[in-house]
């Protein structure tokens, strides 16, 4: 085993001897991935509001409200369960639903004849978002009923009068109502055809169908863990210097280059372990194919080695361990912010995303996203590898020179 291998094993043994730091670095992607899965993993739908409905009117219109939750358009967002008033109040008090809606007697007459009607909406006091959505939805329904009365109030009242009798409405009554509705539609023809506003839902539908929570957030959060791990490992050079082992190691004939290469290799092994855990979570929670994991591991380890070289270079140009920690923190956090880890590139302003995509971690995040969830472009991957690797190689040789010179002697 060469000197690089011995130095690598030495640093790995030191990592194992410090289990707290090792568990923090390895556990960071586990914590992040678990939180991502709880927030919304692959294939997770939008949040669904659960509404308990008390129908005191028991009419055709009131039953339509209960049937609304079963429609294909609303079933993804709304679940309506009809209950008695006593059961509804008990369950909303127990926090088993987001809201309780009570339809009073006379609800149908209020809707069809535009008579004053008061709906009772009781929201779950321990929640805000979903009960608020239900409340805003009820406001929209009330507004829709108001404008329907403005447009078709007379035929609606005629329908209501026909429905109150014991007999079915006559053909003549049906014809009168149909004629009235047709006349109203003809008056609205200039507004409805062509419509004053047009809405293209094709792109929005495609985006919604193809949205993948893991694809948007997982690569950035993975490299957030890599960045923090690289920062923590890079500080080890100061620990060796303070303890006096650095000077003795550099006096060996193999030189500073082999020593630094072993330290980088040990750090890459730790980051590879963290990446393996993150990929396991991605496979379990976000639909990452098994076949993509090996290339993702290689790419993350390669990028992690480059980032570790950069972090080590920052430590070597510092004049103290505290200064190195401060300098690396001042570099790491802006890179994480702009490099697609805290905020995905899709949510950034165009100019910021354009800059962030050319940072070392930004390049790594983009290619990781393609490897895990998209189409792999060999040319783009090669360009990213050059963009990440060449600066790291330059920094590595400058770090070796600094390590043999002022850093070791000061």
Strand content: 5-15%
Give a quick account of the main beta sheet: strands, pairing sense, barrel closure.
Answer: 4 strands, mixed
**SSE string:** HHEHEHEHEHHHHHHHHHHHHH
What percentage of residues falls in helices of 4 or more residues?
over 70%
How many domains? The number is 2
Which residues form runs of ≥5 with pLDDT under 50? 203-211
General description of the model:
The chain has 410 residues and is mostly helical. It has two domains: 3-42 and 212-409, no CATH class; 49-168, 3-Layer(aba) Sandwich (abc type-2 transporter like fold). Helix content is 70%, strand content 5%. It is built from 18 helices and four strands. It has helices spanning 3-16, 19-40, 60-68, 85-93, 107-113, 129-164, 171-187, 189-192, 202-210, 213-234, 236-243, 245-250, 255-285, 293-316, 321-338, 350-356, 360-373, 378-409, and strands at 49-55, 78-82, 99-103, 120-123. It has a four-stranded mixed β-sheet with strand order 2-1-3-4, with helices on both faces. The longest helix has 36 residues, at 129-164. It starts with a helix and ends with a helix.
